[in-house]
């Protein structure tokens, strides 16, 4: 419990008091996902507002040994958005900026709702009919998304790395979809337009 | 003289890797031998793991997927699929002025691709699962035909384009597509990089139905080449659809576009431009909007170019002394890898030319995770991995 309290105090310094939720009544909202009810009550729901804040939080979790679960809109149906043990939730709902849209490329923050993606006449940004989830949640939970061209990624040790699919090397950008949070947290995602199926 | 091991089974290959790891002996994984010059050099006394006998094609009951063992020549796999009216949407150049010997293992390991990637995406999008041998002797299978649960990065995608540095690819499960039937192509010529680049952007936007969309460029002049198939829903023929693309090309100011129904030779030439036996070949990944800058860079180095018009992939053929100048003239965000190099030039050219940084650190961590002994194709990959 002491480690959790220390982490929560640290999170308040990183994100600001109002973005670290610990009231049990408020937290009960986060015990559900798209399917389940009465999942574990998280020790806190932390709502970071930037990539450095996420990096600092992940680093603090790694140091304290407190597990974290990343959550977008909380619509997944397999428990992937629920806290584990006495862990905390990192909720990305504040990260909902559309950063740039240039030609056939779009860069958005992970918490952007799928329904808020800009309309594309002949194509689409993501091959899904889901409108309730977030971009980050969809990418993390869906193996085979093939049109991601860049990622800003917070790795499990808290390091922040910019990954460009054009970079010659292992195709980490291509291999990231479906990693369900265990390969890190995508903070921003750059998508290439694809033909509508 | 390097020693060669020729495994006849997956377990043979895995055992050979494990033995080499115990002996701390470098292993060079070899398929058809058509791309052995790509990347850095392996130690001269590396053990050659020749995959030619791991050669089998199995089309699954669903008719829409197949498993191809790594040593299978891609041309043979495609012939097998064609008999069922199907194809693998991967059409790289399969050799360097020789028989089309490239194997599926080598094509996947180098993520080599061709014009069909315009419609069907990069090679990784065709791969459903993979079977690999790691240097500790274990065999890992992923994909829908296994009980493997992805926990972390997708192994099939990591191995695609890894140049064999994570382990040996033993087989790949691929998605098959219906063979498109008759095709027609529209060819229009442009007199400036800006004109070609603007036309490419507009045509890609207006014609999402293109099967392939390439360009070729040489000496300040070039052309766009778009391939179409018939539309089974509307009944429009490939030729009729190609004529619509010709109208768009005309509206972009391209010189009088030509529609060809005997287009196989045009596309063979595009693929041939992706390799070079006599000169250097740079593969450049860039933003599609930067195509004009890439063409100017090629002109400055007296290079010729073929590429995917809407994908930001260019293949520049040029003389070795021009490589540094062309690299410097490319847009900052472009990544240029020297693939083919004339004999004797390899030591003088940095194939990957990638700066140190967090991305490279991540690559090295992945290498250490999959191949802690460091024996799989050492020195071949980015950052001397």
Q: Can you give me a brief rundown of this structure?
A:
With about 200 residues, chain A is α+β, with helices and mostly antiparallel strands. Helix content of chain A is about 20%, strand content about 25%. In chain A, a hairpin with a 2-residue loop joins strand 5 and strand 6.
Described by its quaternary structure, the protein is heterodimer
- Give the total of beta strands of chain B: 18
Spatially, the strands of the biggest sheet of chain A line up as 5-6-10-8-9
Query: Helical element count of chain A?
Result: 5
Measured on Cα atoms, how large is the radius of gyration of chain B?
21 Å
Q: How many individual β-strands of chain A?
A: 11
CATH class identity of the largest domain in chain A: Alpha Beta
Biggest interchain interface, per-side counts: A-B, 36 and 45 residues
The CATH architecture designation of the largest domain in chain B is 2-Layer Sandwich
Query: What characterizes the major β-sheet of chain B?
Result: 8 strands, antiparallel
How many structural domains in the coordinates of chain A?
Answer: 2
Rg over alpha carbons of chain A: 16 Å
Which structural class do you get from the secondary structure elements of chain B? alpha+beta
**What distance lies between the first and last C-alpha atoms of chain B, to the nearest angstrom?**
23 Å
Q: Give helix and strand order of chain A, one letter per element, not per position.
A: HEHEHEEEEEHEEHEE
CATH topology of the largest domain in chain A: Uridine Diphospho-n-acetylenolpyruvylglucosamine Reductase, domain 3
Unreliable stretches of chain B: none
Q: Globular, elongated, flat, extended or rod-shaped: what is the shape of chain B?
A: globular
CATH fold descriptor of the largest domain in chain B: Uridine Diphospho-n-acetylenolpyruvylglucosamine Reductase, domain 3
Terminal CA distance of chain A reads 50 Å
